[in-house]
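Can you please make up a whole protein chain along with its backbone structure tokens because I've never seen that pairing?
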Amino acid sequence: MRDFDYAAPESVQQAVQLLSQANGSGRPLAGGTDLIDQVRMRRHEPDLIVDIKRIPELNVLEIGADGFRLGAAVPCWKITSNEDISRQYTALGDSCSIIGGVQIQNRASVGGNLCNSGPAADSIPSLIALEAVCVIMGPDGQREVPVAEFCTGPSTNVLKPGELLVELRFPPRPAHSGSHYRRFIPRNEMDIAVVGVGVSVVLDESGENFVSGRISLGAVAAKPLFAEEASSLLAGRPVNDETLAAAAAAARAIATPIDDMRGTVEFRQHVTGVLTERVLQRAIERARSGEPGSLHP
């Protein structure tokens, strides 16, 4: 590991200033579960690491009538242990419960997982399904970007030099809604998704028809995908096997995975369809029950 300078600012303004002065050679540290390993392996060689854990705005965790605010440095364990999140934003709880073990969850943050921008990241499909928006602060002020547009490729995103992800904002959850995230992994080999699917659905009062739905895919393209066409096939349609199969087929159609040690292209495309149907079924169950689902289905 090469030498680098370390700073621990206590305000967003100080953090942005430090990152801006680093001219692209600075890296923010939230949990550090990805960054420290990347620096050790020389995938990144920053001159400055900016520890953002002490900044109040990055530790916000608030749920109210206006929705849900999640600071970029909030560790995963605070999400999985929050009953309101389990009830209303269940897919996010699903994701956070499987990001590493207990020790990792005490450090890792959803904001850090998003900014690492891995194609197989477990939190990003849930964020997309739940319509999360990134609040970004930089030298030119604040801007907002939907999570669905945040990642641009493997380990790349829309953040410019000097910019910092401050928080994620989620809209309020409507009545008769449910969400779920699930992944398929070769657990005996590595704890990383072969395919990941995040889903959010809203049903009508009868529970027999979709009002709307959002489907997102991970690990099947160069970046996590919002399956827009598959999602549109749910709106106004009856909740039945035919509708779910059509949405799953549309999701499978946009999957462009690669062959690697985790699976072949054909296998991962097949799993995309199967997993999409299963995740939809679980989200529907949660929407109908109106109760928080298990974070370990």
